[in-house]
Amino acid sequence: MNFRKLSKTLKAAAAVWALCAASAFADTTIEFIQWWEPEMPAGALRGIMDDFEAKNPGIKVTLVSGPYATTRDQIVVGAASGTLSDVVGLDGAWVNGLSKQGAIASMDELMEKANYDKSQIADIVKVDGKSVMFPLASFVYPVFVNMDIAAAAGVETMPSTRSEFAEAAKKMTDASKNQYGWVLPLSLQSPSGIQNDVMSWVWSSGASMMKDGKPDLENEAVVGTLEYIEKLNKDGVISPGIFAKKEQDKVEEFVNGRVGMMVDTLAHVNLIRERNPKLNFSISALPAADGYTGKRGMPYASWGIGISEGSAHKEEAWKLVEFLMSPEVNGRLVSIANAFPGNVHAKPDFVTSDPIFAEAFKIYQSGYPANEFVGLPVAEELMRNMNVELQKMFDGGQSAKDAAANTQKAWLAKF
Amino acid sequence: MNRSITALAPAPPKAGKKGRLSYKTLRKLVPYLYVTPATLLLVLLMLFPMAMVLRYSLMDGAIMKRDAAFAGLQNYITIFQNPVFWQSLYQTLYFTIMSVVFHFVLGLAFALLLNTNRVNPTIRSILRVLFILPWLFTAVIIAIIWRLLLDPNGVVNSVLMTLHIINFKVEWFSSTSTAIHALTFANIWAGYPLFMVSLLAGLQGISKELYEAAGIDGANELQKFWYITIPQLMPIIISISLLDFIWTMQVFPLVWMTTGGGPIYATEMLSTFTYKLAFAQYEFSLASASAIVILIISMSVTYFYIKHQQRR
Questions:
Q1: Which residue numbers in chain A have pLDDT < 50?
Q2: Distance from CA of A109 to the nearest CA of B (A)
Q3: Which of A29, A192, B157, B248 has the fewest CB within 10 Å, making it most exposed?
Q4: In whole angstroms, what is the distance from residue A29 CA to residue A316 CA?
Q5: How confident is the model at residue B220 (pLDDT cuts 50, 70, 90)?
Q6: What domain of life is recorded for the organism (chain A) (predicted)?
Q7: B282:A378 CB<8 A
Q8: CB proximity list for B149: less than 8 A, separation 6 or greater
Q9: What fold does the segment set A143-284+376-414 form as a domain?
């Protein structure tokens, strides 16, 4: 290659590099950390991001995805080191800690600046009066019933009260066949069973575990619920191995037809169908205390969204939040995820096409979403504290009343 | 050696230039330049994080508070006053000591089996693959395998009930009386191949003449094992035992994925205790103090390891 040719090649390379560099610097790239991408069909979330980028030239989105637990650890470490992504996928259980740490920003100012209509948001999670999280998609937790086991056991109607549930669970239990009425996961590794499978019984009866922003665990409703669950265990209707069981074990036992009933998220409907296409199951609202006629609280978990306080691109981050919360995009996202929307105007398509989701939507509309752990300080640790006390109760070391009192003591120390 | 240093060292500086190092000084610096990259990496990746953790352990609300203040030894006092910490320490020591002892016993037994000529070579090759299998699995796979095997409806209970050894379903990981033993058993299964491979290499290195001489002197098999095999293997046994002690003491994934430290606190180890302080309670200062305690215990064992290596 002669010198002139080499010089031309170098000049061309430099021009291409300069062009690329210029376009790269012209774009603002924002990071979006969440655990949702692996839980959605491949490419679904990226497709939504591509649409966002097409509508917002100059903004690029980098997805930082991982499983739930890994993402949580990454967010905690990112918050501590000041390297948190611009847009953050949030669980209600983390919000208080992250907000107190100054890691997630208040979105009030951004909403005001954009003249955002707050009334379209189904719920805004606030800490110390600041709006820090929007639930983007909500997964409710009804009772799943194996209809074949129920029919074989002579259970004809879906249990609506605690007595009916206990009766149905007894009928469905046949220990000689490794078949049980209910499954309760209380592993300490992931103590969310306390929220989804234990305290949900309190909320479904319209009761509360809080009073004036403080724990109120010694009230009749909470103690009554613990006594009820303890009785179910003594009656032998709960699948054995409670203390080491995790949520996935619970679903696995239901899928394999080893338990008649479980409290679980609607997000698992497709998973259950994939794992066992022949499983004949249905859903119903969580049973309430006998004689309760009021509205029922329905436990839920959310894919929440917020903005990092340390973000250098808060406005661009807000644009992404606004885009994801818009009726059309929110409807599309929750339709893919089989969740209920965060925007009141969004219309997911599955509620008309699938009888299970149609039933779930009916239950959802007749009650109210309830999850008192959202926004509490060190929510996961609170669940773990209660988990330990419940394990002691099941182990025969203390009564339900003592379990409630000891949990109350442990919780008060955290508030 | 001298020739290579001379070759690598820069040429003698020209006379009369001010501010430049002399040739003699440069030659003295050469060895230090060689170790500089490794030293830098050691400082950045090991000493710096350790110093940070030590610093956090002496602060009040490290990471979580912007104005975290110096708290002296308060965090250490707090964790020492926590009964769960002492329970974790006791359980960690039980788990570690039992694991190391049984890793050694099983490892030695399998190594002897694989080293003997009395077993058919084909069978020995098959056993060699089978025995090393647990070492190939990651902690996640090991946790899943043992969770399934020890499930109340799992294979272990089924076999034991069929053989009429037990007459009810034991909740191995769910019962406060069996969880720590079940967990230790799973760890023993997962870790013996390290001993097996190391001891097998040691056995193959023992001179056959020693055994022949002992045979001529009338020693039986047990005496040969006790007076030749064990002393010959002793350096390997000590080295691997100390390393295994340090590694087992820090085991986290297996404990976390099988029991999460429960039921109640029955399988809480120092590693899970520390993890919960950091990532569930966001008490990074207390977690750092707990981590420093683990470091001190590990370092005390490391001291014996280094002493042993120096003696060799």
A1: 1
A2: 23
A3: A29
A4: 9
A5: very high
A6: Bacteria
A7: yes
A8: B155, B156
A9: D-Maltodextrin-Binding Protein; domain 2 (3.40.190)
* Contacts B148 to A, Cβ<8 Å: none
Question: In whole angstroms, what is the distance from residue B103 CA to residue B208 CA?
Answer: 26
Three-class secondary structure of residue B291 per DSSP: helix
From the CA of A384, how many Å to the nearest CA of chain B? 9
- pLDDT higher than threshold 60 for residue B231: yes
Q: Is A236 on the interface with B (CB under 8 A)?
A: no
Interface membership of A174 toward B (CB under 8 Å)? no
Q: With b meaning 16 or more CB within 10 Å and e meaning fewer, what string describes A188-218?
A: bbbbbbbbbbbbbbbbbbbbbbeeeeebbbe
**CA atoms of A191 and A385, how far apart (whole Å):** 9
Q: Does B26 have pLDDT greater than 50?
A: yes
In chain A, where the domains are located:
3-138+302-354, 143-284+376-414
Return all residues near B103 (Cβ < 8 A) that are at least 6 apart.
B188, B191, B192, B194, B195, B244
Asked if residues B233 and B205 have their Cβ atoms less than 8 Å apart, the reply is: no
Q: Which domains does chain B have, with CATH numbers?
A: 83-311 (1.10.3720.10)
Question: Within a 10 A sphere around the Cβ of A336, how many other Cβ atoms?
Answer: 20
Superfamily name with CATH number, domain A3-138+302-354: Periplasmic binding protein-like II (3.40.190.10)
Q: How far is A6 from chain B (nearest CA, A)?
A: 35
Q: What is the pLDDT of residues A3-29, one digit of tens each?
A: 566 666 666 666 666 555 555 555 899
